[in-house]
Specification:
Layout: E1 4-12, H1 15-26, E2 29-32, E3 38-41, E4 49-54, E5 65-69, H2 74-86, E6 90-91, E7 103-106, E8 112-115, E9 129-134, H3 138-148, E10 152-156, E11 159-163, E12 170-173, E13 187-192, H4 199-209, E14 212-213, E15 224-227, E16 233-236
């Protein structure tokens, strides 16, 4: 069996504030976790938690991953945008064209996200978090498909997407050009081996797929920090 995606982690300068923002936007419950972070617990088919981990590092550029939130109507899109703004979000300009109907926002720490138009066909069967939209190569899409055992649901013009067989968000990679990596990503995945699995065996398997072990100076209860073929950090936890 392959490892599981158990959490998407945010580095946060103010974890409680950022957690409250996303709990309000998503309608998820907040909970303390065992590693001095704050966790949001999904109430839908998302399949993974969202964790907020304290850091003193400031955000310096666009994130490699951002949320694409879905909407069901013009009014539903407006309500999501209004709720995000009321909670402390803001509109941002990342070069979107006037004719594009998605709305680009940032959370209180500048993490980008989009509220997608209601008739978007690619995310039509997805929940509120429609996609984790990522900057990345075709190779890294293939890597994550094998790493998680999630099938490719899109593979065209070097753009890729995968999705869990159990539903939840798609994870997409936009293909070239891939922005140069200038430092540690602000968001990363936490993976866990299957119950009663072998962490070292899973690390070895991921290395065989193209991952590498790295040291970012953060050590939590024996977790192993790794990077995918594009250099994006992720962690392999001890078996749950």
């Amino acid at each position: 069996m392959t490892c599981q995606l158990v959490a998407l982690c945010f580095d946060a300068n103010d974890p409680p504030r950022l957690a409250r923002f996303w709990a309000g936007v998503l309608g998820w419950e907040m909970a303390d976790d065992a590693h001095d972070g704050i966790t949001l617990l999904p109430n839908d088919d998302t399949g993974f938690r969202i964790r907020f981990l304290a850091t003193e590092e400031k955000k310096t550029g666009p994130n490699q991953i951002h949320f694409d939130l879905t909407s069901t109507s013009v009014e539903d899109q407006r309500q999501t945008v209004a709720r995000a703004l009321e909670l402390g979000g803001r509109h941002i300009d990342i070069g979107q064209l006037p004719e594009e109907r998605h709305v680009v926002l940032a959370d209180p720490e500048g993490n980008e996200f989009c509220v997608i138009e209601w008739d978007n066909k690619f995310l039509a069967d997805c929940g509120f978090i429609g996609a984790l939209s990522s900057d990345g190569s075709q190779q890294v899409g293939y890597f994550w498909s094998q790493a998680l055992g999630w099938p490719l649901v899109w593979d065209q013009d070097e753009e890729t997407a995968i999705r869990s067989p159990h539903g939840g968000p798609k994870v997409t990679w936009g293909g070239p050009p891939v922005a140069p990596k200038t430092g540690k990503n602000r968001l990363h995945f936490d993976l866990a081996p299957p119950a009663h699995g072998d962490q070292q065996a899973e690390v070895d398997r991921l290395i065989s797929l193209g991952a590498t072990r790295i040291d970012i100076g953060r050590h939590e209860d024996g977790q192993v920090t790794m990077a995918d073929p594009d250099g994006n950090e992720f962690c392999v936890l001890t078996p749950r």
